[in-house]
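Our collaborator T.R. sent over the components below with a one-line note: 'Predict the complex.' Nothing else. No constraints on interfaces, no templates requested, no preferences about which chain binds where. So this is a plain run: every listed entity goes in together, and whatever single assembly comes back becomes the starting point for the next discussion.
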Amino acid sequence: MPNNRRNFFKQLAGIGSLLLLGKKKKAHAAYSGRSPDQLGVLVDTTLCVGCRSCEKACNRINEDLPHKPSETFRDDSVFEQRRRMEWDAYTVVNRYKNQGDEGRSLYAKFQCMHCVYPACESACIVGAFTREPNGAVIYDAWKCIGCRYCMAACPFQVPAYEYGNALTPQVRKCTFCFEKRLSEGKIPACVEACPMQVMSFGKRNDLIRKAKKKIKESSDRYLPHIYGEREVGGTAWLYLSGVAFEDIDFPKLGYGPVPGYTEPIQHAIFKWFLPPLGLYTMLGGIMWFLNKKKKNRKQLENK
Amino acid sequence: MVFEQKKEKPETVRKQIKMSSHQRAAPVEKKFFTPGMKILTAVMVTGLGFGLYRMIFGLASVTNLNNQYALGLWIGADVATGVALAAGGFTTGALVYIFNREHFHAILRPALLTALLGYTFVGIGLEFDLGKWYNIWHPAIPFMWQGNSVLFEVGMCVMVYLNVLYIEFMPVVCERFIGRVNLPGMLSCLNNPVDILLRFLDHILGKIMFIFIIAGVVLSCLHQSSLGTLMVIAPYKLHPLYWSLLSPAFFLSSAIGVGLPMVIFESMLACRAFGRKPEMRVLTPLARIIPFLIGVYIFLKIGDMIFRGTYVYLFESSVPAIMFWIEFGFLTVVPFFMFMSSDIRRSPRGLFIAATMYIIGIFLNRSTVFFIAFKPVYAEKAYIPAMGEFALTIGLIAAIIFVYRVFVTILPVLPAQEENS
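Returned assembly:
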């Protein structure tokens, strides 16, 4: 008897792990090659001097953000703390200490990474986030119910919320200038504004090739790592750096898309509605059987 | 003539149900505004005051939420814990109707009422947390359906299940008001139509109730587990002790486990409030089932910990590790052994303590997953809920108790007290 039971559990475990493996394989298959022609931006952080022209250009192009006077973008005191994107700023530049060369500070520009497999898009309860074929991840404020699950889901902690707005709060994040510039064939405002040509805009695949070439040609300048090439399944915005990415506040992430964890579970539970229907049938069967048994017993007792 | 026929049938059906159950239910005849109820009302009004303030001045005015911690106490407690603690409805439903344990019939109605109020207040609590609360209906609109979203599934299941709960509760309303509909003033002309409607509902529901009871169990299993899938999307933020692909199984099994302790807790509190003796005759055998249910949860949780090797985090000095010892070690495993002991099961005090411990354990577990063991990428300081957040959460709990009392005073929910009257 114990032997039997052990065997049973072994078999059960075997079936379980097979199921899990099968799911994992499927998940990877589903996540390969999503619009290879998509656009992207390559940011060479080694060139950035922290002038914040990109921040200013972003503020000017997005007229729904509160207009900030030009002086605010020349104020260097903001570098004293680590800033993050806020409801009124879709991009920020931060300054970092350079361990190798004390005289030259490092700068990094942050904004939405525009994931190839966006967690926000997968998480959103009403589909307020959509990823356009060109790679831009955009937000529809009209659909949004304000649950902020996208903010918990985003592996880069990008979306910001208008907590101070009582009636029509929105989730705020970089739009990749999707409506204002890309649709008119122009390049994003921040890319155009940069005086140091830190950013290059183009097809993501071309940018990866370009980055690899840069790394190969000046291996003393760059780490052999294109941040965003494979992180969480890839992002439209790609980064090059001379120091470890964790030192300039980029989170260390795996290569699997984040929705790759939840969506297989979700879809397995609802595969053609079979699991819920199966459970329903099973419970109905138990109910019917036990009722019948009880009726029979009562009849016997009556006899 | 047709009317006469309708009049006959539900009466007999209900009689049968009454005969089969061991004890009849009846409205509670007690003074409503006792001193305790006055305090409760004050707590409720204070909480709702904070809620109103948030509605007028926005989330920032009351909560400590920020761009790092977007989900806080109101999601962890009001929604996630609320849903878990309302599991008593479907577990007792399954026990009595599906697994045919008629012995527990007496606790069915209170359990159902607790679930119904619990889910209703999950909805109300959620409204305070949603930025655009007036868009809460959006997930129900087909062109906004988002099948990849775990939250969508949770939302849909909760919405449908709430309706199922109201349907399941309908017979109680019918029992109270059939033949006794007496609407005030102008509405009195509707007395007859309402009565006919109630009789019709009673008649129909008596025949098809099993459909809803099974549906309630299936819907509950779906959304209880999916609540656990929610944070699986944040593998880089949730502490490894709490991030697991088995999280949906943890949430489901622990919710099934907390259903019956919640029924015990609530039944004993109600008995105390109404000066009755706790119904140990029903509660003791009910508690015997609990170790099997909590056992499944403990087995899964420990198995997963060994399989993934996360036991290495158990002895690190971090908040999630401490929380794990408290909510799992102390408030789940200890009550498990308490429910195993037949002495404790027979002692009202012991049973109450065990149930309360596990309930607090579930609350801490959900809060840990949603914001305590959750570390956003750029968080500089931990999120500690603001006073207003606590006030609203406690106010909503007070409101549930308040409405519960209103319901049991009007409707036949609690077992009738024959010897006392």
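Summary for T.R.: Confidence is low (pLDDT under 50) at residues 1-21 of chain B.
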